[in-house]
Design goal:
- By secondary structure, the chain is α/β, with parallel strands linked by helices.
- Helix content is about 50%, strand content about 15%.
- It is built from 6 helices and 5 strands; from the N terminus they run βαβαβαβαβαα.
- It has a 5-stranded parallel sheet with strand order 2-1-3-5-4, sandwiched between helices.
- Strand 4, helix 4 and strand 5 form a beta-alpha-beta unit.
- The radius of gyration is 14 Å and the shape is globular.
Length: about 150
């Protein structure tokens, strides 16, 4: 599985540790930055990761900022991206199982390394249930097509 990961300045340290943990687990991880604690704008990094997911260049994306909320808002502007902030294993499992979330957004301010790793592990290992949930995800795609072309 190919994973693209990005963060703003508040998530740099957590991202670095998570990249290492994912690579140790055998995942192919592309680090999109930021690479230091200098203040940056989170939409730039959300866009870098979300674009790769949208185009199919990677299978999944992970974004880390202070809360995960701003990253999810920015990432969801890209067609085919279903980004969600998750701060525990239950939400990580359910967002995959029911919503086929392909970009996980995490809070560097609220989660420690063990929590981050566990949340990501659950999210990566949980399959999409499909069935009745596929119908709902398809409706989201229809909304993207219908309203995404507006100027």
């Amino acid at each position: 599985m190919r994973i693209s990961i990005g963060s703003d300045h508040r998530g740099v340290q957590a991202k670095g540790r998570l990249v290492g943990a994912l690579r140790e687990l055998g995942y192919n991880v592309n680090d999109e930055g930021a690479h230091d604690g200098q203040t940056v704008d989170y939409p730039d990094f959300a866009a870098s990761v979300a674009e790769k997911v949208s185009l199919g260049d990677v299978d999944r994306g992970i974004l880390i900022c202070g809360t995960g909320i701003g990253m999810s808002i920015a990432a969801n502007k890209f067609p085919g991206v279903r980004a969600a902030p998750c701060n525990d294993e239950f939400l990580a499992e359910m967002c995959r199982r029911h919503n086929d979330v392909n970009v996980l957004c995490l809070s560097a301010d609220r989660l420690n390394d063990a929590q981050l790793t566990n949340i990501v592990r659950v999210w990566l290992e949980t399959p999409f249930e499909s069935g009745r949930h596929a119908r709902r995800v398809d409706k989201i795609r229809t909304l993207e097509e219908r309203f995404g072309k507006r100027q």
